[in-house]
Known about the structure:
It is a single chain. Helices cover 77% and strands 3% of the residues. By secondary structure, it is mainly α. Strand 2 and strand 3 form a beta hairpin. The relative contact order is 0.10. The model has no long low-confidence stretch (mean pLDDT 79). Pfam families: ABC_trans_CmpB. The chain crosses the membrane at residues 6-27, 39-60, 66-86, 107-131, 143-166.
Amino acid sequence: MSIYYSILYFFVYGFLGWCTEVIFAAFKQHRFVNRGFLNGPICPIYGVGVTLVIACLEAFQSNLLLLYISSVILVTVLEGVTGWAMDKLFHNKWWDYSKLPFNIGGYVCLLFSLIWGVACVFIVYFVHPLIHQVLSLIPHTAGIALIAILGIALLSDIIVTTSAIVKFNQYLERLKHITDELHAISNQIGSELYQNVMHVLDMQESSRQKLDDVKLEVSEEIRMQIVELKTRAQNLGEKIPKPARRLLKAFPKLESRNYKAQLELFRQKLEQHLGRH
């Protein structure tokens, strides 16, 4: 297989994979959801996966069982490595099979590996011959130009999406700072209440009024801190990053390694936002 056709296959099957994900989401959620990691209509993991299957396993086309088993293994490895790499790179888990039996780290599971195997066999036998026939009709020069245009668009999309994920993690980090401060104030209130009770038990009646004055000053200071933090949290919640909204819709099982509680708060805020529109 030439590099020229490999790249064309990547874009074609990446687009078809995106269409498959969108159709699946439409049946499941009864609305359109851009299920791709990127903004554009392409799922690179499908493009890479199917192209690898064709390049590596087309020679096994005469042996159905061998083709199926090899497809299951190859796609499972690809999905597992991709999920693990994206987890380590962005500190987010984009899909999770941990509730399904025979899964490995939630990145892959037996059920979907078997399904991917069937899909790959179907593609090799029925879909790919048609795709190859159509692509062979494109003049080579036009094909090169098409690859250049799609390549630039894909690279731009990757840069924009990566930047959006970094900004989203920064957003969650700011939200975490606010929740941590609120938690610290809560602990401070509890500690001061305990100390005041102990002091009251040890103090004479004449000294209790002085203690009440101190408590009022401390309470007012803490109240102002809480109001300020809640205002900051509200302002931050009103600035929900648009790319983050799309990513959460596309990956409803997205998990953050560093900001689990904050991501859940973000989900609740997003649901409230969607409920108003």
